[in-house]
Amino acid sequence: MSAMPQIAASGLDSVDQIEVLFDRLWPLMRSLTGPGVRATHDILSEYLPLQRIEVPSGTRVFDWTVPKEWLVRQSYVIAPDGRRILDVAENNLRLVNYSVPFRGALSRAALEAHLHSRPDMPDAVPYVTSYYEPRWGFCLSDNERAALPEGDYEVVVDTELKDGALTISEAVLPGSENAEVLISTYTCHPSLANNELSGPLVAAFLYRRLAAWPQRRLTYRFVFAPETIGAIAYLALRGDHLREYLVAGYVATCCGLDTHFTYKRSRRGDTLADRAAVHALKSMGFEYRVRDFAPTGSDERQYCSPGFNLPVGSLIRGVYGEYPEYHTSLDNKALIDFAALRGTIDAYETICRALERNERFENLLPHGEPQLGRRGLYPTIGAADQADRVQAMMWVLNLSDGSHDLLSIAERSGIAIDQLWPAALAAEKAGILRRAVSKETARG
Amino acid sequence: MSAMPQIAASGLDSVDQIEVLFDRLWPLMRSLTGPGVRATHDILSEYLPLQRIEVPSGTRVFDWTVPKEWLVRQSYVIAPDGRRILDVAENNLRLVNYSVPFRGALSRAALEAHLHSRPDMPDAVPYVTSYYEPRWGFCLSDNERAALPEGDYEVVVDTELKDGALTISEAVLPGSENAEVLISTYTCHPSLANNELSGPLVAAFLYRRLAAWPQRRLTYRFVFAPETIGAIAYLALRGDHLREYLVAGYVATCCGLDTHFTYKRSRRGDTLADRAAVHALKSMGFEYRVRDFAPTGSDERQYCSPGFNLPVGSLIRGVYGEYPEYHTSLDNKALIDFAALRGTIDAYETICRALERNERFENLLPHGEPQLGRRGLYPTIGAADQADRVQAMMWVLNLSDGSHDLLSIAERSGIAIDQLWPAALAAEKAGILRRAVSKETARG
Amino acid sequence: MSAMPQIAASGLDSVDQIEVLFDRLWPLMRSLTGPGVRATHDILSEYLPLQRIEVPSGTRVFDWTVPKEWLVRQSYVIAPDGRRILDVAENNLRLVNYSVPFRGALSRAALEAHLHSRPDMPDAVPYVTSYYEPRWGFCLSDNERAALPEGDYEVVVDTELKDGALTISEAVLPGSENAEVLISTYTCHPSLANNELSGPLVAAFLYRRLAAWPQRRLTYRFVFAPETIGAIAYLALRGDHLREYLVAGYVATCCGLDTHFTYKRSRRGDTLADRAAVHALKSMGFEYRVRDFAPTGSDERQYCSPGFNLPVGSLIRGVYGEYPEYHTSLDNKALIDFAALRGTIDAYETICRALERNERFENLLPHGEPQLGRRGLYPTIGAADQADRVQAMMWVLNLSDGSHDLLSIAERSGIAIDQLWPAALAAEKAGILRRAVSKETARG
Fold first, then answer.
1. Residue B326 with chain C: CB contacts under 8 Å
2. Pair B369, B351 in one domain
3. pLDDT tens-digit readout, C7-56
């Protein structure tokens, strides 16, 4: 592990490679279920070894029931002038997600009840869903809506809701310990960029970074599932396991904007997940803000529900609901910044490296300082300056009392764990420190 | 309780009604004991059903002995020019409270030792007491004092100290639980407005508000007693009971000025009394400041003495000792603002409502979120906005884990308990939440 | 103890007396060991009754071995022009401390490897040591170095490293209790002013102040030892004792500059040492800053090593490494301010007095307030003003519940312990308070 590079080889991902994957995933008609989701997971499987889990429609998962699978064959409206408009083939936001089938002719007035636009953003097509209430509808910009003439409209919503399955994929990258880190992201939004594709892109390329590490102490679990129902279904399958082994987890969502990082703490607020994320952001020198847990947001709502209360936070870069293009057609490729998105992968990798290195050491020579000089660990000539690495060594030795892990030494000293780590290894090699048996448990 | 109005019917009190009671109580010669106190309690009894407790002179109450009862027949001075001056009949602050009887002729120089004025406030007559040291004396403005001519003065202090009793009154408004809230105020200052009458006025009209609630969970205890010795005597009678049942208490004093609220914390600093008061003030949008407990002030000194250490704070509006008119004839009707005083009643009622609603719920579906949509508790069509009531519901569900009461959910979420309450009731009705058995005890 | 003066008699020390001692100690060639150290301790013994401890060379003290004793007979260089330069007899910083013997002729180029100067401070001669690596060398200003001509230099380093001993001295000033306070300072730097002599000067004169107190509750232990190895050797001798009895300790170092005080907390951060120091500085009205513990600095590194973790901080006035003259010939008599140094003695005495007075009392009349008036402890006539001493009494009575010591009452009330102390004594005399059995242990 001492050979672990600061940042994994840049050959594993590049802005271009990320953009290629983005372009392939962009046009797919994703939803809670259905062929668009499976096509998405198929493409992702080229990047990491995903295991597919299909949860049949009708399965009870805690308080929820897995819905029927949704299939879109075609969907459009013929305007009074004969033009085909609101065609899902042109933009998959046009159709209210999970619309039930409908065919018929309607007056403009009757059609109105099925139209969705945003008066506050007159050029944007909104993203609208109706998963659990049978409805059909179309989305359009407010300007388009105003321009619809009076007359008869012919509506074609050629969809189908049928017994099928909910698609979840996972990939587990084993380490030498059973303690696990979770990266969870969702694949249920259709053509939306920051609030959809940034999460799977970060997760997929992060997997490749961690897989390229020469060794791993912790086990890393990557999950791709539809938001809410998917996370709940996953918890129904793996909740007991996570309760036992999870030491830190993150929901990767909305992480592709060229703006500051936002770390949202887990429900408990001081878990290892929170400490590693805050430390990594601080030590990387990026601009960041930390906010407390709230039970609104993404799938941390499920992981942090009171029956699980797992150590799961979320590292975000462009927070859902707080940028104007959110949940509209303007959340598209032009909005995200692929270099920033790659910086998010760096941040996640730094967090994982902090977790890897967060070991606990025991000072075997705790009475006074050990004589570092005769071990070649201290400058042998005393002058007014003291090197940073001596400081790192002093902190590691002084606080390696069995109750401090390296992250807590980093927090107290203000020295990055990546500076403390070589000091700890050198002291271990010199026989001054002994690695303590890991005390990490699922309770973080 | 769900029908409890936000603010109780305004018919229960009005600025005019409060002013009428003020005018009736103003002229009475209150003191630690005596007929003025009893007359005050008689009038208050028209507003709330007070139970009278008379503690005989000479009774030991902890380290104190109930003093003799004090009676004033007349008291004045005949000046050298024959004018009657410093007459208690003109202003009951003229006589040092608890003055012993005296009759005699004195030179101006000899009289000086018995005069009290405030050079720093030359127009004000100070309020002076000598309860436990036998003295007699007169109070006058510094300007009046300067104008007293040389010559012989005839002094008449026709008072009497005799075996009698100390008068305390209480009223208990029962709730469905034994847990109690205490409102304590004092009735020992003569014609002083903010630092006397504001407290009993707020307490009396607050009683009427709480009595008008359709139901009460908690029991409310109102106490009217002379300051210090009265509170100590009351603790001698009811201290053991309060130790067992009191969950929150407040000393109502100095609460009639048109200024910001000041909440003084209980000695323990984080009791339910403190949390409810701070939350109520915050959620009401009033300007307020919070200060820590100090063993100087009013009767919280006694309730928070180390042998009791009860959860008693004080909500003040115009702090004793911090406004210049304090303890002088300028603390009169012109100083107080009856609309502000009524606002103090609103604040106390809001605190009591927060205490009422501070229940603890248990989420019966704690694994992931419950599916609110099929219970009609969630918008069935997903769009970018999330209603405040959904947020309230999410917070209540996420934190109803048995360890959080509604106040702690309010504190953590920043949502007022009055917004959380309907969410909790709706979730209870839907069978998602169960009301936990009250864990509140006298230790708050 | 009630007769203890606020500041001890000024006859015990004066700026002149301090300066006399400074001048006597200044020229001695101090080092880890050797005759200069013994001469220093001999002179200090005229001021306080030091007990000498000689630890033989070769003794193992935890991870360290006491080095051979170092003797300097003469040391200089003959320049190409025949001038004798870099003579240790002129300035004892000229010779790298612990230089091994050497005689020989070197070219200027060959000499270079043995020269030490500070390009950033071209007029200063640096202070350089090489205790544990056999070397010899000379220190000079960068300007002197630049002026050295080409040519042959004759080097004489007539030193000797031989079996001897490491010199430590201690003085214990007994109190009525076994609980101890430690003042530790070092005597290993040669002619350096703030970073050497200020510490022993403060310690020596502080001893005299405490010895002049009419009585002492606590026991005070003063230690003079070389830095690092001396403190480690002392811990090898007295560590178990200190673990049992030490309640507070301070490393006196760098305390003679006319600047703000810096208090460096102990490793635990909230020990009695920390609380007393911060309270004393605050109550004295001096400018001060508080910093957290760091395992770099002076001998608190040893006292706070994880195997001991003693309650030892450091009160500094001109922090090592943070003033430019540090560890150079410019840290000389001109730099320090003897009045400021005497102020540091005042500060240490105030800290010790706070520790003395930090007793715990129990209120024997805890139910309501005791009636102070009839005991002559309260003004018998009530008026608008309340004296500071009444406030002090109220705080002491209210918080003397067995869990608060006087320092915690001072911290909570904002009243200096020196104001609380007479109130506590008066209440004890009146039978209201009882002194609690000391609960102080070595764990502070």
1. 384
2. no
3. 444 578 999 999 999 999 999 999 999 999 999 999 999 999 999 999 99
Could you report the predicted ipTM of this complex, rounded to two decimals? 0.92
Could you write out the DSSP letters of every residue in A236-256?
HHHHHHHHHHEEEEEE--S--
- Determine how many CB atoms are found less than 10 A away from the CB of residue A29: 21
List of chain A residues with pLDDT < 50: 1-9, 384-385, 441-444
Taking the Cβ of residue B101 and every Cβ of chain A, the question of whether any pair is shorter than 8 Å is answered with no
Chain B residues close to C382, C-beta within 8 Å:
128-131
Looking at the domain assignment, is residue A2 inside a domain?
Answer: no
Residue A80: exposure state from Cβ atoms within 10 A (0-12, 13-18, ≥19)? middle
Q: Describe the strand order of the beta sheet including C219-225 as a list of residue ranges.
A: C51-56, C165-173, C219-225, C180-186, C246-251, C312-316, C261-264, C288-291
Chain B contact probe: residue of C371, C399, C413 with most B CBs at under 10 A: C371
Q: Which of B207, B311, B188 is nearest to B253 (CA)?
A: B188
Domain count, chain C: 3
Q: Which of A357, A376, A391 is the last residue of a domain?
A: A357
- Is residue C6 in a domain? no
- Answer yes or no: are the C-beta atoms of C265 and C281 closer than 8 Å: no
Task: Please tell me whether residues B351 and B216 are part of one structural domain.
Answer: yes
Q: Are residues B209 and B276 in the same domain?
A: yes
Return the percentage of chain C with pLDDT > 90, whole number: 91
Shortest Cα distance, chain A CAs vs residue C316, angstroms:
18
Which 370-389 residues of chain B touch chain A by CB within 8 A?
370-371, 373-374, 380-384, 386
Picking from C360, C361, C365, C369 by the largest number of B CB atoms within 10 A of its own CB, the best residue to mutate is C369
CATH of the domain at A434: 1.10.10.10
Do B158 and B261 sit in the same domain of this protein?
no
* A134 and B CB contact within 8 Å: no
Please, which chains are in contact with C (at least 3 CB pairs closer than 8 A)?
A, B
CA closest to B387 among chain A residues: A296
Q: Are residues B45 and B170 in the same domain?
A: yes
Looking at the structure, tell me whether residues C192 and C218 fall in a common domain. yes
Range of the domain at B118: 73-162
Claim to verify: residue C252 and residue C353 sit in the same structural domain: yes
Query: Is residue A348, in this structure, part of any structural domain at all?
Result: yes
CA distance B416 to chain C (A): 31
Asked which of C138, C162, C186 is the last residue of a domain, the reply is C162
Domain presence at residue B6: no
CB A243 within 8 A of CB A379: no
Tell me the pTM.
Answer: 0.92
Is residue B317 scored above 90 in pLDDT?
yes
Does A128 sit within 8 Å of B367, measured CB to CB? no
Angle of CA points B403, B407, B409, to nearest 5°: 65
CA pair distance A423, A416, nearest whole angstrom: 11
Least confident of A200-209, A371-380, B433-442, C339-348: B433-442
Say if residue A335 is in the same domain as residue A250: yes
Output the pLDDT for position A4. 40
Nearest CA in chain C to B195: C384
Task: Write down how long chain A is.
Answer: 444
The residue type at B128:
V
User: What's the pLDDT band for B5 if we cut at 50, 70, 90?
Assistant: very low
Please judge whether B63 and C369 are an interchain contact, meaning their C-beta atoms are less than 8 angstroms apart.
yes
> Which of C118, C194, C305, C326 to mutate against chain A (most A CBs within 10 Å)?
C305
Is B130 an interface residue toward C (CB < 8 Å)?
yes
Looking up residue A85, the CATH number of its domain turns out to be 3.50.30.90
pLDDT tens-digit map of B30-74: 999 999 999 999 999 999 999 999 999 999 999 999 999 999 999
What mean pLDDT do residues B110-129 have? 97
